[in-house]
């Protein structure tokens, strides 16, 4: 009803002010009129999920990110590189330095007041350094040219809220154990990467997707790692950002690697949308309270004096 009232007032103001395009009506005119005739006392300015002091900062320039969610949406959680991990919790304003000439997929989500549910996560890109030479994201989506075997078992869909690119695939709860979806890729440099998958994050889809999706990650064609992907999480403490981190893996440059979403053992729908790789590490505050990135330090779990190359932590 509020939207309808605002639209009607905008149309009337457009007529009164001889404005041919109603979208050009100044917001202040609508706001003033609404406050004078409506039952609610205050019309809030539209707010972006968050703002940045610079959307194209220099490498290692300090950037201030400010929450834009209304206060009634409780606490917020930040993800600074899009891998789905919580990098800052319950901070309305953060200062950060982006260390590489690349695209950073910054995400923010908030709780709903007095509930364990979370609002839809928002993701915006910050380009650090020279835009013309920025490092391409290691994002592999359904429309890319990598191999997609037995695709006939998957149904193309564009109705779900929050997917990456033009759409996503679901197994439609059929061909269990036979259908799988594969992302095949290589990396620009050898190193440890966080492997993340996009997941359903519309609250109305609670329980509609499997919580036990088997995922196989193969590094260098030699080492196979198996993890379980829960696609049904919606509670605030467990609900993912746009992406959900699955594992930290060492990938070697010049080699072919792949990730397979399988359907064995699942009894409801399985979704395949996109896969994201990000350099593994942690965001930690320096002495000035600015978040800086700390590269992942390899471990030597077998105490042989050499860092593990294919271990998963």
Q: What does the model show?
A:
- The protein has 313 residues and is mainly β.
- It folds into three domains: 2-37; 50-136, Immunoglobulins (Immunoglobulin-like), CATH 2.60.40; 138-281, Sandwich (Jelly Rolls).
- The chain has two helices and 20 strands.
- It has helices at residues 2-16, 27-37; strands at 50-52, 62-67, 76-79, 88-89, 93-97, 103-110, 122-127, 138-141, 155-157, 168-170, 180-185, 191-198, 213-219, 223-229, 243-251, 257-262, 271-272, 274-279, 281-285, 291-295.
- The chain has a four-stranded antiparallel β-sheet with strand order 4-3-6-7, with no helix packed on it. It has a four-stranded antiparallel β-sheet with strand order 8-18-12-15, with no helix packed on it.
- The longest helix is centred in the first third of the chain and has 15 residues, at 2-16.
- The protein starts with a helix and ends in an 18-residue tail after the last strand.
- The model is unreliable at 39-46 (pLDDT under 50).
Kindly list the characteristics that best describe this protein.
mainly beta; Immunoglobulin-like; 4-stranded antiparallel sheet; 2 helices; 20 strands; 8% helix
